Each structure stands twice: as structure tokens, then as C-alpha cells.
Amino acid sequence: MSRPSAALPTLDLRNVPGVLGQIVTQRAGDYAGADPELGPARPAPRRFETALWAGCQDEGALSLIAEVKRASPSQGAIAPLDPVEAARAYQAGGAAALSVLTEPRHFDGHLDFLRAVVGAVSIPALRKDFVVHPAMLREAAEAGASAALLMVSVLGEATGAYLETAHHLGLDALVEVHDERELDLALATGARMIGVNNRDLTTLHIDLDVSPRLIRRAREAGFDGLLVAESGYRRPEDVAQVRGLANAVLVGSSLAGSGDLTRAARDLMAR
Ligand SMILES: O=P(O)(O)OC[C@@H](O)[C@@H](O)c1c[nH]c2ccccc12
């Protein structure tokens, strides 16, 4: 049985700047003693990828990945969401898939939220966390996640090895980038889903021009996988900027803080 964990390079997180550096250093501490063993390969149903493709087939159509997000470093507390109620509301509002934050200190997330959500809805869920240890991917698979986020800003040259690990565990991987250098690295790993984060996680500054720019670059480079525009989408006009470019948008704060998650999801995606 292949054990990709044995080949995983050690991460050097000392050069990760700003808020992001602080979070990943804490996360690496949380998992410092965790068992890196992955166990046998799991089948890959590719549910996350398939759901996103299904939702963007019509001209200009975009799939929605709705995020269960109770707090963030940029906004502090957003809303005291019950994760299961939020997940059901997003599903009713037309979300193709969910993202569930499991980082506890800055995002008020928990792995139990992911487990509970997976048991309560039929759409697939992604583990949204700062993956810095293979055990985090094993946990995601064991919790029933269909996908996990992998951040090039954190994993650097190790992104490809983590991608293989995710696939070994039967997880789809959303490989996240924020600039040209990170995108080129992501493309070289053979990722099937690339997410472009409009938010610079080292400064928390949002620029909605980042996604269109990098998505065009990915397509020009011949990338034929899924492209996801992430962060900062508050109004249908914002979303319109990536119609015909991205396959999906990932939205958290504006939905989570709306008070009516079903309606907010529908309204945001209306055209
Ligand atoms: O709340 P917003 O602006 O809609 O953003 C959602 C999502 O893109 C954001 O939560 C996010 C994108 N990449 C991340 C990495 C870690 C933590 C959080 C994130």
C-alpha cells in the first residue's frame, strides 16, 4: 500500500508573513504531534468537483460554494450560526456545495461542524482550514468531507505532495492562489480545481480584480479544470464580474451575516 505521507516534505512556515503566518504557525503547533499515517487509499467519488461542474453548464452560469463562517480575522464575529441550520439554508438557497471553516481561534470553526453538516445535507462539503499536516486531510476524509482547501501561500513547493495526499484520501482539492507566481506553481501541480482568493491573507485587503486577472491567465495557459473566484462578493454586480470567466464563486461573510441565508444566496446569484 502506498503511503504518500512518508514522502511529504517538511514545511518551512517561518517565511509566511502577516496574519497568515500567525495562523499557520498556531495550526502547525496544534498538529505537531499528530499521526501522519494516512492508511489505505480511499475511492475518489469526486462529488465536489462534479457538483460545481453541474452548476455552471449554462452560458454565464456560476456555481455557488456557500461558506459556514461565524467569524474572521478581518471582521471578528460575523454571526453565531448554527452550522447545520446554515448548511440547510444554503442548500435551500441553491448552493452547489458548502465550505465549512474548521479553524477554531480566528474563524470560530470546528471539525465537529463539518461532521454535522455532512450528515445534514446532500450537497458536498469542503474542509476550509490552513492545512499544514497530512492528519488534517485524514480528518477531513474521516469527517465525510468531499474536498479540502490547499493554500499555495502556505504549502509552497509542497503543494503537489499535499495534492497527491488529498487524492489518496479520496478528497477533491481546491488549490488556492493569490498572485501570478502562486498560480504558475498551482498549474504545475496538475490541480483540477484552482481557487483565486481576492483577499490577500497577509494584509486582509480585498481586490475583486484579482480573480478575473488570474482566471484569464490560467485559461490562457491552457488550464481546463475548475476555476473558483473567492472572497469579497457582496452584491450581484460583484458576481457579474466573473460570469463567463469563473466556474464558481466562494462566498462567506456577506451570506453568513445576512440574517436570511437562503434568500441572501438566491439574491446574490440572481441575474
Ligand atoms: O467571507 P468572504 O469574503 O466571502 O470570503 C469567503 C472565503 O473566500 C474566505 O473565507 C477564504 C478564502 N480562502 C481562505 C483561506 C482560509 C480561510 C478563509 C478563506
Automatic annotation (TrEMBL):
Keywords: Amino-acid biosynthesis, Aromatic amino acid biosynthesis, Decarboxylase, Lyase, Tryptophan biosynthesis. PROSITE patterns: IGPS. SUPFAM superfamilies: Ribulose-phoshate binding barrel. Pfam families: IGPS. It is an enzyme of class 4 (lyase). Its EC number is 4.1.1.48. GO terms for molecular function: indole-3-glycerol-phosphate synthase activity. Residues 44-268 form the Indole-3-glycerol phosphate synthase domain. Signal peptide: none annotated. PANTHER family: INDOLE-3-GLYCEROL-PHOSPHATE SYNTHASE (PTHR22854:SF2), TRYPTOPHAN BIOSYNTHESIS PROTEIN (PTHR22854). This is indole-3-glycerol-phosphate synthase. The lineage of its organism: Bacteria, Thermotogati, Deinococcota, Deinococci, Deinococcales.
